[in-house]
Design a protein that fits this description.
mainly beta, 4-stranded antiparallel beta sheet, globular
Length: 180
């Protein structure tokens, strides 16, 4: 992440209570926080426009190129260790795990506190499932144990923006990393 894009970084203990953290930035963001089992961050990547020349950072109002699409991108990340696995930290878009075992991952996705219905789930660029009508998911298959290896899954919500001169839509992404 570029430091200028990161708005917040937080750490939590096993009960979901905030823990004081120290952060430094020397080319990479480093967070030091003994006792934390979960970390969250919010990054605002600003408005991106797609022109006939491709994607670039900018607003559709200040671009001389023909704008085909414009989007404001916000990303919420959560990293949890096994002791913090089931924490719901109330991010605007959040993946919450109910059960994690070798070859099984069950949970729920929330968007603004409500179940996120029929949202795709990805591991890298591969679609590995989607949520049901209650925002719940169950992924069965070749997943490593979260105690032995890192698992990263993500989802997103795209919505049209009304009366916004800089972007046509807002893309909100949630990324969950289960750390051993």
């Amino acid at each position: 992440y570029q430091r200028s894009s990161i708005e917040t970084v937080s750490a939590f203990d096993a009960q979901g209570q905030p823990v004081k953290l120290e952060e430094s930035f020397a080319g990479r963001l480093t967070v030091l926080c003994p006792g934390a089992v979960a970390f969250t961050s919010k990054a605002d990547y600003g408005t991106w426009i797609k022109t006939i020349r491709g994607w670039k950072l900018g607003s559709k109002t200040d671009s001389g190129d023909r704008v085909l699409k414009s989007a404001w991108h916000i990303q919420y990340t959560k990293l949890v260790k096994p002791a913090g696995l089931k924490l719901n930290l109330k991010q605007p878009l959040e993946i919450v795990i109910n059960q994690a075992a070798p070859n099984l991952l069950e949970g729920q996705v929330f968007y603004n506190g409500q179940p996120a219905i029929e949202r795709p789930l990805y591991q890298g660029h591969d679609r590995i499932g989607k949520t049901d009508f209650q925002g719940k998911f169950s992924i069965i298959g070749e997943l490593p144990s979260p105690i032995q290896a890192q698992i990263v899954i993500s989802t997103d919500v795209e919505e049209e923006l009304q009366n916004r001169p800089h972007a046509d839509r807002k893309i909100t992404t949630a990324t969950l990393t289960l750390a051993p």
